[in-house]
Design brief:
The chain contains 46 helices and 22 strands. The strands form 6 sheets. It has a 5-stranded mixed beta sheet, with helices on one face. It has a 5-stranded antiparallel beta sheet with strand order 10-11-14-13-22, with helices on both faces. It has a 4-stranded antiparallel beta sheet with strand order 6-7-8-9. It is globular. Helix content is 51%, strand content 8%. The longest helix is centred in the C-terminal third of the chain and has 37 residues. With 1331 residues, it is of the alpha+beta class. It holds the Pfam family eIF3_p135. Keywords: Cytoplasm. This is Clu domain-containing protein. One of its GO terms (cellular component) is cytoplasm. InterPro entries: CLU-central (IPR033646), CLU_dom (IPR025697), CLU_prot (IPR027523), GSKIP_dom_sf (IPR023231), TPR-like_helical_dom_sf (IPR011990).
Amino acid sequence: MKDAAKRRSGEQKQTDTSQQINGKRPGGGIKEDDGMLSVKVQGAGVDAFEIQVNGFWLVQDAILTILGREDVAPRTSLALALSGVTLDPFTELQSIKGFKAGVTLRLIEEPYSPRSARAHLARVDELLRAASPQDALREGRSPSILNTLTHTPELPPAGHSAKGKRANNRTEQPNEAPPPPDYILPGATELPPLATLLPSSTYTEAPRCLVDLSLSCWNPPPGSRKLQGDFLYISVQTLEGKHCDLTSSPRGFYLNRSTLDAFDPRPAPSTPVCHCLTDLLSQLSPQFKHNFSALRHRPTLPTEESMSTPYPTLSWLGGTALHSHKINYSCRLGLEQGLNTQAPDWNEEIQAARDLPQTTLEERLQRDKALLQVNSAFVWAVAQGAEKVIDGFVDPINSCNDNPAFLWGGLFLSMGGPGQEGLGGERGRRAAQRLELRSIQAYSDLEGDLQALHTLPTALAEYRGLRLSAQGLAPGLQGPDQPGVSRGLLYGFNIGPLENPARRKLLELLAQAAKALSLQRHSVQGPSGYQLPLFTSTDAQGLLGADGRYYILDVFRTMPADANFNIVEGEEGEEDGVSRRFPHGLCRLRPELVKAFIQLKHSQFTKRVRERMEENGGVEECVKAGDSRGTEAVRGACKDVGSVSDLIFEMRFNPNIFSPDVQFPSSESSAVSLQETLLKEAAAFIVNDQIPAFVNDCLQGTEIPIDGATLRHALHQKGINLRYLGHLISSTSQSEHKDRLRHITRLAYGEIVVRCARRIFSGYIQGVELASLSAAASHFLCCLVVPHFNPASNGEESKKRSRRRGHKGGGTADSIAWSSLSGNELWSLICQDALETYGLKQGLGSNVDYLVEQYGIQRLSLLREICLKTGIQLRLRDYVLDNRNKAPITADDVLNLLPVVKHLTMTTTDASQAFQAAQNSLQKGLLEQAYDQLKEAAYLFGRVCDDLHPEACHCLSTLARVAYLQGHPAEARSVQLRVVVISERVLGFDHPNTIQQYALLAVYMFAGGETALALRCMYRAKLLMLTVHGEDHPYTAVLDSSLGLMLQGEQSLQYLQNALKLSTSFRGAMDLTTALNHHLMAQRMCVAGDYRGGMTQEKEAHNIFQSQCGENHPQTKCSSDFLKAITQQAVRVERSIRQGGAELTDSSTPESLAPTAETTLEQLALVNGILKTSYSMRIMEFKEKLKERRAAEEAEKAKAESSIEVKVDEEATVSVKQTEEVNETREESQQEDSGVLEEKAEHSKTGEVESHLKNGDASTENEQDAESSTDQSEIPLTNTVSAKNQSESKEVIMTAKDTLEPALVNGEESKVTEEIMTVEKQAVTETPAQN
């Protein structure tokens, strides 16, 4: 009950925060003050204040809200009283007699218990260790840099001291554009200094209030004092050097007479008993009182910075100081042991959260929040437990050296069992752990009744080269004992036919789950020769726990096998390297690939049905009710595409195909053959369709990965496993546009090297003793990034360090065996691993220099990637990585080695659905509706995850874009400030998404006139881009174009020239993006007075528009008008020069050639992908124009004479007809997949640029009419094919619905109950058609 109250309180506070930031409640729903009452609170030594409470709150909710206030902290153990009567904490406020708005509640100090006294000490310790931005770096977490970078006073909430505000305002006063640093100028040879990545925070550290606060040496209290109420004794040393001994008692805290040498627990004379410890310390130490007051009144961190992230986000860089630590009184007070004596039951907590009601929206939000909180705490516990176990603080619970198991903090941690030789040994074991986590995620995401099928909370932690699988403790098993069968085990390969209601229910759940996951029900040969029907792989087990819940375990083979890497014995892989043997036998398809393959098969099925119907008399004849030709067409199409049913389209996969030691009965031979064919087609689908589609997306600019993480995410979205990286490199190398794909080739090679190096590092670091970890890690990094690194000097230094630490004698040689690794040896191991894993026979060269020279890979980028993947945190300093004579990274540079945790993600159902609805509205061009839906989604995300979630970050970023499009740059700026902080903390301070969010924030700030801040943000984005990838990337063109538009003079031209160069190189010389860059260059040259150069650039732009869009397209016409204006000005300047310079005194640029501020903002929005127009938006604009024209015609009709009424009616009829045509076109175009805001910036230039080439007199008067008429004529041509395909789909659906309705009813899972009855009587094999 108390936890529930805490959750409600936290949600309410977050609700208020979201409402204040967003400005209004989303969707026009309940008003902010509905149900809220204002009450006055006083007493307990605090000044009176007012709070807002809700009538349905419990008293405990109000108390928790009060305790969370800064002016009340760190007081605890308080109660509320009304009219002298203490209120029950678990009573609703609205049920209390006399409770109403404006009532005065009094705080009452309650006696302490031993536990509440320790909780009060913990609260005091938390306050004294006030959070600061530096804490994240100390703990290895990603910090937020935005507040340090901008010094904006808007980020911190109200309540800052005037001094802090004055400091911030003084920083902002000079709004002059700062010049760009030399290291981010185009073509800079030197990389940016690493110190600029994490600038020193201007946020002051918390002042120190005490020298020491710890448990006294006189603890525990003797029996006589315990009977008098002494809980514990606390030792305090003040800043004045005074030593005090305090007593904790039920009444509070007081000073006793004990010293370091003598025990005297009696109260000191003239010393009061204070309920709050800080009140007593303020009386004992004037300096404590002063510093504590300063601590409480200093500016607080923004909400997004002060709150803890749900999951760890590692930072590969730490602080600059070698020795940086923060005082922690909690350990000295013994609070960690005293408050957490009982290990949590993680499984029960997660399952209890899943079982929460979901009837109303409020219940679903509370359930999602509870699930996220429990899973977050579980993941943090796994990270801590992995360190404890591998560092040797926990003893194993078994005697198996190959697979030791550990219990710690309610977690069961194991290595995952010895790897089976048939699965690839150690690599097979790691693959099984990874696939188990992915499959558990698939089962956890099932909705509805399938939530009754439970899985254990699971996470993977990799630390010091070892991977631990962590799970919550499984519940006891429920059920009768049977010979040869585990108690409670109801489903599995070793389970024979059983008849009981529990098994029947479990089979029903498994059948429904198999349908949701596209798994085929099949039969295998059981251990005793009987046929065993299964809905999963043979490894899976189902059981009924003692808690009454059904569980499924060992689901790592859930997804179907990848036929490209499952070579049958006696066969050899293809010479092209696509089909070959893999180091382990657990190559499975990704869920995204299965979904895409089913969609492909469905389109083939639709096409085949139509073809067969046309062959048998036409579609219209076959779809008539009772016509058997329609049924036969569907049956034939099902057989053609490989449907497991011959009655309806149903695509399912057998997870046991290509699995070793699995035998199928002879009755399954046809089904097995069909499944093998399907899996081979699915494997070919990756190579022939998905990889080329990904490459094409990269060419078109819809996918722009910047680092290994974004490349991995983009590939996974297409269903492409990373084992296809070698084939991706082959595809890009053989492409005719391989030079435009060089950034993809660069990233693929870098990802291969880093992943191979990580596998080698895992085995390398396992044999290193604890005292040499930092030296070994630094030595490995040097071998990786320094060509031909000589380990001699580093080894000698390590020996000296080992001797200084006392490691002498025979153990010294073994302890530094890792130092014998050389750069050449490491690179040879990487090449061998790349060949085995990715089929990469060549391309890596002999050392890292080959990658740098051949593909442009940065050593610093490799260093960042390997640190993020292995958990290494380096000191913040510049590293000379091309120095072959001295180790660039030393042992002192390795600050920490952190566990890398892979975990489940909890869904935010309602928030995600609202966000998806908003995205659909954007695709239809409904900006106002999308804006309200985004507000609603942001509110729901705030309720569930406090916005600290990647999807919430994406939602808020989209909200900022829509707000900007609606003409609210201030709101966009406010929201985007939060987005940047969230991205830095949740994804990483140098994550590619953070780079893009900084660029968007710069645009919004520039629109608000904050040029200096905008440039700082854009400089930050360019700095991160150069560090993460380098300059040679298509997104650098976006940043340089933006900088060129924001800056003035020579530097502006410098950035625009580089953007044009990169755009031409990556997008092609005839791409519309390149045309836009030519136009921007022409504009800037005209401003600089170089009209000839501007004319040359605009000619290039005009040629591209004319070639791509046609002579009569508005884009071409607008460019032609601008070119004429430049030509006229160039002729005028030339004439003035010939005439002796008479007119040269007027050197200002004509208004027709100088871009206005509005034009610059539009171009910035276009370049950064903020401003995009889809066909749907243009249709709506044309529709509005038609409405206005019709209204004008009706007004004229009312004034006209009756003789012309007939003519007016005819014109109105024509207008109505045009409007209806536009409506029909709009409905068709709303089916398109192109989004208003969700496409990449470079992909949406067609049909857009004409509205941004306008410059004063250079624009034509009839431009808008031409644009509308052009759009009207273009769109139906575009949508004709789409409408045709849709009509085909509708006809096929009608056929399946009208002629095969009985088959649909009988062919779905409605037969599950009958099948289960058959299974209980006898394991009988059924054909796929009966599924």
